[in-house]
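step: validate -> pass
step: tokenize input -> pass
step: predict -> running
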Amino acid sequence: MDGALQAIRQHGIAGVSARTVAACAGVNQALVFYHFGTLDDLLATACQAATVDRVAHYRDRFAAVRSLRELLELGRDLHEQERRNGSLAVLAQLLAGAQVDDRLAAPTAAALRLWTDEIEQVLRRVLAGSPLAELADPAGLARAVTAGFIGLELYDGIDRPGADAALATLEQLAVLADVVDELGPIARRAVRGRLGSRRRSGPRSR
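step: predict -> pass
step: emit ->
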């Protein structure tokens, strides 16, 4: 499985084969089929196992988050660490492969859900009682956050300053959310009412 992940990092999903995996693992390529049946089954198993390990690595830190700003600070650190060790690159490559190979779609989606489940728990906790909780669905927002960090991994490879600027902007929005939460009860009711009316009316047509 380590050889499969290394092959994805080195060759991209399009360049992964039983031969390249075996070369990275230092074994005979027949062992790929002996132990896993197909190359796709090996890739799916390796992705799931690696994601379980990485999510577990951050679980205590997710549990300690108490605000959107802290969540984004953790996200920035997570992005940097996972970029350095290649985990985000592997997940991005598997997402690309899943677009053309249905056998990779389900296991890749399952791996992503491990991240979104953790993020959703944090969002439900930090948004509880906030006026923003009435505007943002935690489950949908968790998926948006996960998709955003995968996108940043791809963007980072071609425009690192642009990716940093995107993260900085998200942090500014988190500061704004903190300001809203610190408002007095009258102002909070006004914000809650305004957000509720915007939600009921939907986006304005241009």
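step: describe -> The chain has a mean pLDDT of 81.
step: cleanup -> pass
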